[in-house]
Amino acid sequence: MALAERTRPSSEDDGARFEALAALATDLAGQFALEPLLERILRHTMQLLDCDSGSICTVDELAGTYRKEVDLGVGCLSGQTFPLDEGVTGEVVRARRSVIFDEYAEVRGGHIAGAERASLHGVIGVPIRWGGSIIGSCVVFSRDPGRRFSEADATLVELFATHAAIAITNARLHALANQREREAAVLAERERVVREVLGLSQAAAPHTPVGPAASTAPRQRWRVLVVHESPLVRAGLVRLLTSLEPGIQVVGEAGDAAHALDSYTLLRPNVVVAHLDLPHIDGLQLTSYLRATDDQAAVVLLLRDLDDERVRGAARIGAVAFVEYDADPGELVRAVQAAARGESLVPTDILSRLAASADPQHGAEGPHLTPREQEVRALVERGMPDKRIAADLHISVRTVEKHVGAILRKTGALNRTMLAGRSVHPHTHAPL
Question: Taking the complete model, does pTM exceed 0.70, yes or no?
């Protein structure tokens, strides 16, 4: 037998909604502490639905997880992180819309157990959206066996989810602004120290050329984003890069791939230096995401072993350099400099493996290339970009692109890196 759906008189509902929205406007004004804001938003939502239990979660689709930011009246799971294939939030993300259950027992992978689980009946979950993405969820539980949530209830909760999105985004932007302010202060101090050191060096070298023969043009600075899960290692990498090469400016740091992608979009660095073994999403996947976002993204990967199978995959995707942890510090600096100039430093045994992995489409004598294609190939193997090749050969960039496409097709190489791998000698690093 169907249970009756409880409703309220529209005037009462409208009045309560107005009061709740007015209170939310006051709450949100100038506030950036996330948890108290979300708690107040959730309490207003539960009050209007006449419920005493609910939660608000933030979602990280890239990492495949969600985090319970506020959990009231049930579960006591605030601060815990769960995979996105579980719970009401998982259902919301899968459906990409609001979901309604008559009984909590219908929810796959629900985290509430025991007698408390049995006390929950109707459930409504709505997505919290920002910029077309789901950044969270708002979930409300009913303990009344006779309660059935409706589409009207979903619309009401979605309205409050909009305010939750504002609170989450404001908190993130505020935190990011504070982080950028701290980073700017650190960079300013580093630059001051560098200028002092360079000033002392200049004073100690009286025979340094001055006047017309000395260049007065400002030196180009390369912007670098450092990505490593360990704050201690990140600090060491930042100090190493900026102390060995004043032309390198570390503009940001990130502890995981998700923050690295956000930082890349915001800062647009010339080079990303990342750990291959990042948590959740490793350096191979990060390289893939960055190259999909920007086909000019230059990624230098730090790794423990060049024999790691992911190295070949990263090179194929477009990582421009690989540096082992036991390498000389100067090797990392050289890799970053090469990457910033649009070149590459890939170990040639990796190149050879890439070349060997291509399907052999030609005989032992190799593919037949026209004289012009041979000229273009030689310049590609030297790491020259299409614009420079076009200028050197006095042809258009479009013509260069056509020749490069023909060369890749005839040689069976998947990309320029693999093409260069066919012409290098072992035990060296080949500039591409």
Answer: no
